Amino acid sequence: MPSLSPTDPGLFRPEDPETLFGDLWEIGHGSFGAVYSARDLRTNELVAIKKMSYGGKRSDEKWRDIVREASLLQRLRHPNIVAFRGCYLRGHTAWVSDPQVWGGTHKCGVGPISVGQGVSGPISVGQDP
């Protein structure tokens, strides 16, 4: 693990995520990691798992980004934001668990969007109904 450690000792849960989640199949990926559909073996619920590796080149920078994201997700509380379920470590990979939400993207539902729509969309999603 890189030298930077999380400031909050409760940021990462101690359980092994491979014993908590099963039936993983990749549903997307990007430069920061891959997202999987999975089943929470404790509750039988479908969840989304984002796996982010922090090994190799720039591992300290990747680790800082993971800690920053996990810290932010842990603090977010709003009825229009999916609830954060937990973050786990396995090897040099962080697993972030959220409830699975199907529905696609802005582009999927309404076609290409303008820059103005892209900026105002996230703001309106976070507002109270």
TrEMBL record:
Which key words tag this protein in UniProt?
ATP-binding, Kinase, Nucleotide-binding, Serine/threonine-protein kinase, Transferase
Taxonomy, superkingdom: Eukaryota
Q: Name one GO molecular function term.
A: protein serine/threonine kinase activity
User: Is Oxidoreductase set as a keyword in this record?
Assistant: no
InterPro entries the UniProt entry points to: Kinase-like_dom_sf (IPR011009), Prot_kinase_dom (IPR000719), Protein_kinase_ATP_BS (IPR017441), TAO_STE20_kinase (IPR051234)
Residues crossing the lipid bilayer are: none
Kinase recorded as keyword: yes
Q: Which PROSITE patterns match?
A: PROTEIN_KINASE_ATP, PROTEIN_KINASE_DOM
Q: Where does ATP bind?
A: K51
Which Enzyme Commission numbers does its entry carry? 2.7.11.1
EC class: transferase
Q: Which reaction does it catalyse?
A: L-threonyl-[protein] + ATP = O-phospho-L-threonyl-[protein] + ADP + H(+); L-seryl-[protein] + ATP = O-phospho-L-seryl-[protein] + ADP + H(+)
Q: Which cellular component, as a GO term, is one annotated location? A: cytoplasm
| Record domain Protein kinase: where | 21-129
Q: Which family does it belong to?
A: Belongs to the protein kinase superfamily. STE Ser/Thr protein kinase family. STE20 subfamily.
What is this protein called in UniProt? non-specific serine/threonine protein kinase
Protein's organism: Patagioenas fasciata monilis
